[in-house]
């Protein structure tokens, strides 16, 4: 009887370790995606800022 209980606990521990490893992989992927998203947000923000500056220069140039 004890052998069956030990085997059951060992199997549960193995399953939990596998589950934890999967969660760790998913967390790592989410962290990488968040960092990638930040990079793209910066690039988009930078491009919009550049377009606004160019538009202002053109408007000022046309006024003068």
Beta-strand percentage range? under 5%
Average pLDDT, all residues: 80
Distance between the termini: 94 Å
Rg, alpha carbons: 28 Å
Indicate the structural class. Answer: mainly alpha
Q: What spatial form do the alpha-carbon principal axes imply?
A: rod-shaped
> Biggest sheet, in brief?
none
Domains (count): 1
Low-confidence stretches: none
Helix content: over 70%
Q: SSE order in H/E notation?
A: H
Short characterization:
The protein is mostly helical. It is built from 1 helix and no strands. The chain crosses the membrane at residues 44-63.
Topology:
Elements: H1 2-63
Q: What does this entry look like structurally?
A:
This protein has 64 residues and is an all-alpha fold. The chain has one domain (1-63). The chain contains one helix and no strands. The model has no long low-confidence stretch (mean pLDDT 80).
